[in-house]
Amino acid sequence: MGAPVVSSGVFAPVRWEPRIYEGSLKQAAVVRSHVRRDLSGFAPGLVDDVEYTASGGEGGEVVRRLSLPEAGLLRVEVADGGFTDTRPVVAELSGDDWFTSERHRGLLMVSALAKGWGFYPVFAHPTLNLGLVVWADLPVDPAQVPAGLPRFVHTA
């Protein structure tokens, strides 16, 4: 195993072909299955983290993108193409609320797993709201990246 490299020995970024899903909770199992297939050869713990991070979209169509933009970093992006008047935040729950709440814990988990996370509009426009892309950068040991990954991984 070793990080993807070009002939000069320098790290080469890798992108996976995006996948599109119906935005519903019933699609979560399909998303997880695709993550396991797309990340075959990666450490099981990293695959688990990506499964959790990528399967949280709901509402509208969801686009999932994976990339290795730099050595040691796997970026997961989930774009929700629906209108939203809210922005993702880690919920401010206290005490037993964390144990009894059926929502609002996802970003807390993602923020604990990721080196960083954030969001940006699907299309930056002053009046149109076409959805958001939520991203998370997960740490990956460059020595654990399967050797021979192409610069673009076809997923179909």
UniProtKB/TrEMBL annotation:
Record protein name field: Histidine kinase-like protein
Protein's organism: Actinorugispora endophytica
Taxonomy, superkingdom: Bacteria
Lineage of the species this protein comes from: Bacteria, Bacillati, Actinomycetota, Actinomycetes, Streptosporangiales
